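This protein record is not my work; I was only asked to verify it. The record follows directly below this note.
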Amino acid sequence: MNFDGKRIYLDPEPVVDRQAAFEVVMIGHCPGAASKDVLFNHQSMTREMAAMGYAEQLDALKKSSEKSDPLYNLPIPIYSLAEFLQLFSQEKSAAQENPATLYRSRLAGSQLWLPAAVEDFFRYSGSHVFKKLWVINVDQALAQQAFLPDEQNTTMDLRPDNAFIRALGLPRVGLMVMPDLERLQIPAHIEGVPHLRIANPVPQFLPCSANLEDGVRERRNSEEMQQPPAPRNFGELMRQMLAAISRFRPDLRMLISLPLDRELLGELPQESRSALADINTLQKSQFAESLHRVQIIYPYVRDHRYRLMSASGLLAGKMAETVASKGAWRSVAGTPLAGSYEPFPRLSQQHIEVLRNDKSIGVLRSRLQKTELDDERLSGGVFGDQTEHARSGEISRFLGWLYRELEHMGHQLLFNVDPADPKPLIVLQDFFNRLHQLGALRGKTAEQAFSIQRLLSENDPSILIFIIDIAPAFPIDTIRLRLQQDRLELSRG
């Protein structure tokens, strides 16, 4: 940030190494190239990147004579919006100087969605919570392919330049968001409020300087205009990403918006019927048990300038706050999101119920001049269970968080504990006792909430094996009240 005509610069304070309760990764298009001076001045930032296995890339980048670099496919830890704005300066990159490489649509325009999503993630909503965001910049010229995993990478090798695989290699990340992929999936021809189409004027002789483009009439030479690329098939995108997540990071969750479409000319945008059909097909395929790892939301949001953007950044920030302050088992539904946004397109209550109950979509609605998520509904149930409580986003998020916490605990105990030491069992019992006291597990007593059984390995006595059974607290999805009129008879006696 700068003041007084760029004579006073305000640099964000470097963050001391801290561990966030819930880390998020965003893949998208950054505004311009990154400043190498800013990157290497943040020692904590480069130290974390080197710890993730990118020391060679940083050394090569440091030896380069260029002052800036787009840092394609490199995970960068960000702790505040100021760090993001300082790192990615407003210098024009090669892709931005050539408008032909940018995807433009009438509804979403040509604005990048990642910067707005980063701002929404760090937006203050009343609680001081430490947040950590990993940002991965991808090349705009690759379009949707830059966001997809490499299907030939079967061992999660981080050496190839693939943003999706490298995002899966971040061990503490619990949520993946791709706002610019959602922007690329919006068809170029649909618009918010369709223009009034009137007949072209009668041909007549006019001066060469006359402007015939009034923004209303049809263009006369539309066949000479370059046709924009069509959006990718939503079902195929889901299959590729779910296959990689299920194989390498079953604890990771993904947040993505349902694509928009328009059936008839002159209609307002609506949810894509083909995308809903793809979700229905996935529910009946081999990916049915993996659908709880993706949370599909709808609709999009608009700010006070009527700019369309994704709500994934808002929800990701809300999830990070909720996990840190209340727990991973708490839902973010029904709580107002930060900022002044309005859902677009606006949905009726009947439409919301159809999308939630029949299509299993998390719907955004406006209530008391605030935007909130109606329900954290998932398209698939946890462990293949298709009951309503098993298709709750907080249950899936809690199980993923529990997987990472137990894995982190195991790494700490691996080289520090003797196999005969009872410390691991005591640590596990204390961990699940605290979860039960906080309401993450159901049951009157700890014995009803969880059980831990230790097994001895016959082949190797140094192997520790624990069988853990838990009873997670399922949310109340529906409350039915039956109102019945009782007749009261009085008799005089």
Remarks:
- The chain has two domains: 2-189+233-391, 419-476.
- The CA atoms of residues 327 and 440 lie 8 Å apart.
